[in-house]
Every structure is written in structure tokens, then in C-alpha cells.
Amino acid sequence: MEQKNVLIIAYYFPPMGLSGVQRTTKFVKYLPEYGWNPVILTTSPGAFYAFDDTLIQDFEGQDVKIYRTHSDVKRYAKPPKNKKFPSYFKQKLGRLFLQTIYQPDSRIPWKKPALNLAEKIFEENKIDVIYATAPPFTDFLVALEISKKFKIPFIVDYRDVWIDNPFHFYPTPFHKNKSIAYETEILTHAEKAIVTTRHTKELLLRRYGFINHEDVSIIPHGYDASDFEKYNGFKKQKEKFVITHSGLFQDDRTPKYFLKALSNFIKKNKEAESVIEARFVGLMRSSHLKYIKKYNLQNIVNCTGYLNHEDSIKNLMESDLLWFMINDTVRSPGKLFEYFGARKPILACAPEGIIRRTALDSKASIAVEPKSVNEIENAITTFYKLWQINTLPVPREDFVLQFDRRKLTGDLAKELALALDL
């Protein structure tokens, strides 16, 4: 079968790190197996919260063309700098300011250089279809204009909700209506919208009566089985009961309630203090670090700082229990699906909704209200007792396999083919 070319528009792309790049990176890695050559349109990162050069290794040796805007600008030629992860207050303040000025988001200044670079991409490549992933939703606007100009079909991929996202700020009805108008035009012209959860699909269908069920497909987040291959047959030592959280505490997420519950657990189980470790893999806000001291957990908590993806996986495999917290029902944390890939039990601090239900469907999770210290403490106690007698649960294998990134990329390849009527 003749290889087709797909233009992937992704502002966030390696060497940028964090969870926002994982989905795109893995699609790029596996698309060639399904007859699609990825051509990437992205930016040259000058500064970001974290970088992971190892992610590029996922498609080394493949003929992946990467076009970066601003690559000819002197200040982008220097090694990119790490930005400090802001406090929630500063993050909110920044959004208030930026979302008042910029529509649909603060990356809109990237649109013009991206469109200019697209001219070069189309001169040098035969592009068959366009795939744009967001946030930032500026990516969708870039795809729309390129599609119109070059008469090429496009697909949009929602990693997060747009209009109904509780963390988006609209200072006036005009701002919100402007974004709704943008999204309306995009969904009118896109061949397909891809979302990560059924909840997001339902939100789109409710808001926009002109689209139907066939116009929106669900491709969830996943895990890459090859990231875990070296741990086949791996047996973790039982010296410590290791509880790990991997990733950022974004927006209003906080480890406060977990740390309080852990402190209460230790007060009631003094013997556990010498064998328990709470590991935080990723960036931590200074306000969150204060809770460790407040609850006198300095000897128990291990903060690794940001690690590359390979080392993050290693930490998952060295753990007995994985936990996450989320306060809303709108977003889908990518870390949950890597937790499934690690085949470990999960403590899900999540409200009733699709993410909580997904965790429970693994048959290896306990789900609790995110701010219920008592429920979290009881869950820790239950898992600790199971660990003591070597009977910690393991996710169902058939359940885990449905989130394999290679399989999910096959689903994306089908959508790309449908966009071309192949």
C-alpha cells in the first residue's frame, strides 16, 4: 500500500516534556506502521516548564520530517530554558490577563508563523490529510486555514475540553461567543473530531446540534507497551511499601488531602513509618512542599523532581500503589493510563464521573472523594494490609490491553483514511 502523508499540527512537541506531548509523540511513533508518514508542524521552544530529549528517540530512524517555526530566530537557537512552575494564584492571574487579550488562547501569535511555514511544507511535501491536536486551540485555527487554502481535509483531536473547560476564563460574553464561533466553524469544516472520553463527546453533541454521533470519535489516552518491555518478569522488592504519584498537580489539584490522610495513617500504624515511602515524580509547587513539613512527613516523602519519561516509568514499576487526584469530571489525566500499563493497583481520588469509573473498571482500584481525608486514609490502610500479605490487586489484562498506544494509533489511522474516503 502506498504511504500517505499526514501533517500533524502540534504546538507542544518534544523536546518539550510533560503529559501534553505524550499522545502526539506516540501517534507519530506508530503511524508509519499503518501506512502514514507524519510531517510535523510545531514551534521552537524558547522556554518551558520541562524538557525531555529522550522522547525524540521514540521515532529515531524513521523518516519523520519536523518543521519548526522561529528556527531561524537567534534567541531560539540557544538551548531552551526551564520556566518555574507557577503557583495556582499566579497561574489564574496569568490566565485572566492572557485570555482577556488573546483569543482563543495565548498561543494565537503563533498562528501567523505557522501558516507561513505551512507554505514551505506544502512546497516540499504532498500532504494528504491534516491532524491538529489541542490545546492550544490555536492549532485548530491553523488547521482550518491550511485546509481551506490547500483544499486538504482535516481532523481535530481534543486532549482537553474547550468551551466547557472550567479552567478557561472568559472576561466578557463577547470573549466566550468568539470562542464558540471559532469552535463552530472548526467543527463545521472538520472531517472528524476526536476526543479522549465519552463525557467530552457528550459535551460537544449537546452544545452543537449540527454534529451527530458519527462526527465525533473517542480515542482515549493510553500507554506504550514498549516502554514497559524491559520490566517483563520484574519483581519489586518488598522492603518498602511505595506509593507513587507521577506528574503535575495542575490547576486546583493538590496533594494536601492525601498527605493529611497519610499522616493520620502513620499515627495509627506506627510500625508502618519505617516501611512506607510516598514518592512524588514530577514538578511540585512550593505551596505543596509545605504540606510535607506541616504534616511531619519529611522522612517518608521522596520528591524526585521532573524526570524524563523513561525514568518516570521506572518509578512506576518500583511502586506498590499508584495514586492520582482530580477535582473535575471534564479532563482526562494521561497518567492514569500509564498506571494501567504498569499493571499496579490504583488509588483514585476523583469525583463521580468517567475517570473514576474507568479506574474502577480495572478491578484494581479504590476510588474516593478527592477531598475526603477519611476515605483516603481508609484506602491507604486497605492497600497496606493487602501489601503485607502479598495480595495487592492487579488490573485485568483484557482491560489494560485496550489502551495500548499501538492499537490506539491504528484507530487514528482508520480515521485518517476515512477523511480521504480510502
Produce a short descriptive summary:
With 422 residues, this protein is an alpha/beta fold. It is 40% helix and 17% strand.
CATH class of the largest domain: Alpha Beta
Give me the side-by-side strand order of the main sheet: 4-2-1-6-7-8-9
Shape: globular
Largest sheet: 7 strands, parallel
Total count of domains: 2
Poorly predicted regions: none
In CATH, the homologous superfamily of the largest domain goes by the name: Glycogen Phosphorylase B
Give the termini separation: 11 Å
Name given to the CATH architecture of the largest domain: 3-Layer(aba) Sandwich
Estimated radius of gyration: 22 Å
Brief descriptors of the model:
422 residues; alpha/beta; Rossmann fold; 2 domains; seven-stranded parallel β-sheet; six-stranded parallel β-sheet; 15 strands; globular
Give structural notes:
The chain has 422 residues and is α/β, with parallel strands linked by helices. It folds into two domains: 4-222 and 404-419, Glycogen Phosphorylase B (Rossmann fold); 225-401, Rossmann fold (3-Layer(aba) Sandwich), CATH 3.40.50. It is 40% helix and 17% strand. The chain has helices at 22-30, 74-77, 88-101, 111-124, 138-150, 173-189, 198-207, 225-228, 256-268, 286-294, 309-317, 334-342, 354-361, 373-388, 397-401, 405-419; strands at 4-9, 36-43, 47-48, 65-69, 81-82, 129-134, 154-158, 192-195, 216-218, 241-246, 276-281, 301-305, 321-325, 346-349, 365-368. The strands form three sheets. It has a seven-stranded parallel beta sheet, sandwiched between helices. Strand 11, helix 10 (286-294) and strand 12 (301-305) form a beta-alpha-beta unit. Helix 9 crosses helix 14. The longest helix is centred in the middle third of the chain and has 17 residues, at 173-189. It is globular and about 70 Å long. The mean pLDDT is 91.
